[in-house]
Amino acid sequence: MLDRKRFARFGALITSTLGIQMPQSKLPLLENRLRGRLRQLGMATLDEYEAYLFHSPNAADEMVHFCDVVTTNKTDFFREPQHFKYLSGTALPTLMAEHRRPVTKLWCCGCSSGQEAYTLAMVASEFAGDNAGFEFSILATDISTRVLQQAATAIYSEALIEPISAEMRRKYLMRSKDRGRGLVRIRPEVRKTVRFGRLNLMDHSYGRRELFEVIFFRNVMIYFDRATQEAVVNRLAERLAPGGYLFIGLSESSVGMRVPLTAVAPSVLRRME
Ligand SMILES: C[S@@+](CC[C@H](N)C(=O)[O-])C[C@H]1O[C@@H](n2cnc3c(N)ncnc32)[C@H](O)[C@@H]1O
To answer: What is the structure's pLDDT at 176?
Structure first.
């Protein structure tokens, strides 16, 4: 049983480490997810698990698994499709017309199991096919090692590829030789345009001072409180090249945030200079 006091301790750890808000209503969800982790570890009680997570020599390693357990990783190919239309119809042509840099860099943060990053790769590949001289690279990051491993293998069930057009499936996906398994894999030429890495958006600095023309940061900050959202968006804005675009989720908002960005379309912000 996850009682209220223990929930408060786990919740405080989750909020301080990951930024994720933990209202009381999430108690049953957390309890359920921890039960699965206890089973994996062969532990009988939450007492034992709490001591392991907070005080054992394995605490740092367990924190990695704990992040896997507590994050919500729902995603899809071509989720919120209007953003991909905006990307190929407006953002990339604008960046190209302004002759910003030889290689357009895209960053998918909170990439989950890779569908968003590979959607970006397919859309950018299509754009490159129509626009000679356009080159791109994609960085995709998440806090959860479990989803990052899935993303790197790039194998998905056929049910998940429904949002991808038939033409793009033919170009960018391979079917498993064993048809009965119902699996597809992203083709190597698309896979090689994406590199995956683990990054906690709560970190005070995001490592190398690489700049990006496009950042997708969608359906992640919905779990953060307002102050954390504003701090993260400001840190991401620092990593946008001048003229770069930040995409946030369609149900997320930057209204009222003090950020050096201008709204240019629904849930699309731009760093003007
Ligand atoms: C709901 S998924 C969104 C996936 C994708 N961006 C989309 O819109 O389909 C949210 C992702 O954010 C990640 N996440 C949550 N907190 C994070 C943090 N502090 N740092 C990095 N990633 C985080 C989760 O692991 C999860 O994979």
So the answer is: 82
Rounded average pLDDT over 191-211:
93
Catalytic center residues? 33, 142
Q: What is the pLDDT of residue 170?
A: 97
First to last CA, the chain: 53
What mean pLDDT comes out for the span 20-41?
Answer: 96
Res. 100: pLDDT tops 80: no
pTM of the model: 0.96
Q: How far, rounded to the nearest angstrom, does the alpha carbon of residue 137 sit from its chain's CA centroid?
A: 16
* Residue 116 Cβ < 6 Å to ligand 1: yes
Distance separating alpha carbons of residues 139 and 120, to the nearest angstrom: 10
H, E, C per residue of the chain: CCCHHHHHHHHHHHHHHHCECCCHHHHHHHHHHHHHHHHHHCCCCHHHHHHHHHHCCCHHHHHHHHHHHHCCCCCCCCCCCHHHHHHHHHHHHHHHHCCCCCEEEEEEECCCCCHHHHHHHHHHHHHHHHCCCCEEEEEEEECCHHHHHHHHHCEEEHHHHCCCCHHHHHHHEEECCCHHHCEEEECHHHHCCEEEEECCCCCCCCCCCCCEEEEEECCCHHHECHHHHHHHHHHHHHCEEEEEEEEECCCCCCCCCCCCCEEEECCEEECCC
Dig out the tokens for 181 from the structure. 């398994």
Candidates 72, 184, 173; CA nearest to 121 is 173
Cα of 203 from ligand 1 centre, angstroms: 14
Is the CB of 112 inside a 6 Å radius of any atom of ligand 1? yes
Going from the Cα of 110 to the center of ligand 1, the distance in angstroms, rounded, reads 4
